[in-house]
Write a structure and sequence with these properties.
2 copies of one chain form a homodimer.
Chain A lengths: L1 H6 L1 E6 L4 E3 L7 E7 L1 E7 L5 E8 L3 E2 L12 E4 L3 E7 H10 L1 H27 L2 H18 L6 E3 L4 H8 L3 H13 L3 E4 L2 E4 L2 H9 L4
Antiparallel strand pairs in A: 1-8, 2-7, 3-6, 3-8, 4-5, 4-7, 9-11, 10-11
Helix pairs in contact in A: 2-3, 4-7, 5-6
The structure holds a DNA duplex (30 and 30 nucleotides).
DNA sequence: CTTATAGCTTGATATAAGTCAAAATTAACA
DNA sequence: TGTTAATTTTGACTTATATCAAGCTATAAG
């Protein structure tokens, strides 16, 4: 553990809107978010973007870069954030010596795969309101784990960014939020969100007309 | 390399339709496909399915299981296939001793993350015909790498399975295939597919009305 | 070889989500 | 602190894809 600490260095503070890494940047390190909030996104040739995730304190980003020694997405701070750098080749060295660290690294990589595949399920088979309910419940749970309220929190991203993540247009996100509010499942006013009925949202997640 | 060979054992032949592993099965090994064709899919509580990938000879599957010591998807043979088993804890042991093997394993895990994020882009931002063109070009390229024709091959999966992978209904897949055929970009008759114009398909991939 | 079953295509119609537009609200900044 | 720009909401209308249905074609089983 002490040796892992040696490896990790404060990379510094990223102001709202600033970029931790860009697609194409040489891959050298993973990053642990100490405080704050990030989004990762890919852009294809013709300018289309897809937000691939929102990351909060305690989460690791940058794993996309391992495969080709270059990052394949952009990571952008959605609020002022503090980040630690974990040089990857040194992490590999250390994980050869420490089997529990090795195991941990493999689990983190695999967890990212599972997360992505669940988003594929969301994008491939859920309708707008379901996607949004799933998204809100995921945020709720992650805030809860960190000791914050699972039922009352600030959205750190715009409707456009939520839409990009969920495969929807921002107007659809706005309408779906309004509709969940009409249904008394949430209260939403701009970025502040309150979940009034967790179980109702869960039910909404499982609802399919398709 | 010799030591890696020791580790890998023939797991045997999987007949068309048989299951290599199921969601919930204890995770113990990765699998290398020697010959044949698989699909992986996740099923959520209410029975919805999402095909998360199609895997062919030379590819590794099972990485989803590392994170929780249990598989999170099903792997089903789409034709008679031969598989090798790579016991994961022994692979971890060996990769601690052999840095190039360790690096290789990390790249494979990361490549899966990148692949999944590109599917998120497809599902989140492309229209039906574009998704299909992207899919066909991806198959084409993978066949080419293996020394098969990039322009003439058999689809190993049903329209329903293609639809599940691409987030479309089977009728939409069928119509999109017919339309690409009318446009003289492909010839398709049941499962046999011929690409008449690779660059035309690529152009179609980049086309967006949305 | 015959029958049954699963898979595929195509048409008609319905609908969820997208598009366009305008107003309202909030945030940024000079 | 006023002004501008960005974000959000809501409405009216359009469209891509889903749904439903029927007929057709392969493939598998007896």
């Amino acid at each position: 553990m002490a040796r892992l600490d040696d490896l990790i260095t404060r990379k510094g503070v990223y102001r709202h809107g600033s970029i931790l890494y860009r697609s194409g940047d040489k891959f050298q390190a993973l990053y642990a978010i100490r405080t704050g909030f990030f989004k990762t996104q890919i852009l294809n040739e013709d300018g289309r973007e897809q937000v691939t995730g929102f990351q909060m304190a305690g989460e690791i980003i940058g794993m996309d870069g391992i495969s080709s020694d270059a990052h394949t997405c952009d990571a952008v701070a959605l609020e002022d954030s503090e980040v630690c750098e974990i040089p990857f080749s040194r992490l590999e060295d250390l994980s050869r010596e420490l089997p529990p660290l090795q195991r941990h690294l493999h689990r983190i990589l695999s967890r990212e795969i599972v997360r992505d595949q669940n988003i594929m399920l969301l994008l491939g088979s859920m309708r707008a309101e379901e996607r949004l309910a799933t998204f809100l419940l995921n945020l709720s749970q992650r805030f809860a784990v960190r000791g914050y309220s699972p039922t009352s929190f600030q959205l750190r991203m715009t409707r456009h960014e939520i839409g990009s993540y969920l495969g929807l247009k921002l107007e659809t996100v706005s309408r779906a939020l309004s509709h969940l509010q009409e249904s008394k499942l949430i209260n939403v006013r701009n970025r502040s969100l309150e979940i009034l009925c967790l179980s109702g949202l869960q039910a909404c997640m499982g609802k399919r007309t398709r």
